């Protein structure tokens, strides 16, 4: 069953997908379904977020209501999904 959830996208991703919005509402029951919904709106976005295993890419972090999440993480109606790019440096 799909719940309406809010997804916040990182600025680096927005730059790659003209017309993408920083915050979108999608219907999804899991993080994987949210990724599918993003892919449906902006083809190619899932490949930027997930690898072929499938799993969330190492340089991407996903949080659901402030808790680190994986593709299998369930989503409740009104959940806040935040996608962040990892920051590295030296």
Mean pLDDT: 93
Assigned CATH architecture:
Roll
In percent terms, what proportion of residues is strand?
A: 25-35%
Helix content: 10-25%
Order of adjacent strands in the largest pleated sheet: 2-1-5-3-4
SSE arrangement, N to C: EHEHHEEE
Q: Give the N-to-C terminal Cα separation.
A: 44 Å
Shape: globular
- Helical stretch tally: 3
Which fold name is given in CATH as the topology?
A: Ubiquitin-like (UB roll)
Low-confidence stretches: none
Radius of gyration: 12 Å
CATH class: Alpha Beta
**Counted beta strands:** 5
How many distinct folded domains? 1
Largest beta sheet, briefly? 5 strands, mixed
Helix/strand class: alpha+beta
Query: What is the CATH superfamily?
Result: Beta-grasp domain
Care to give the gist of this entry?
Helices cover 24% and strands 28% of the residues.
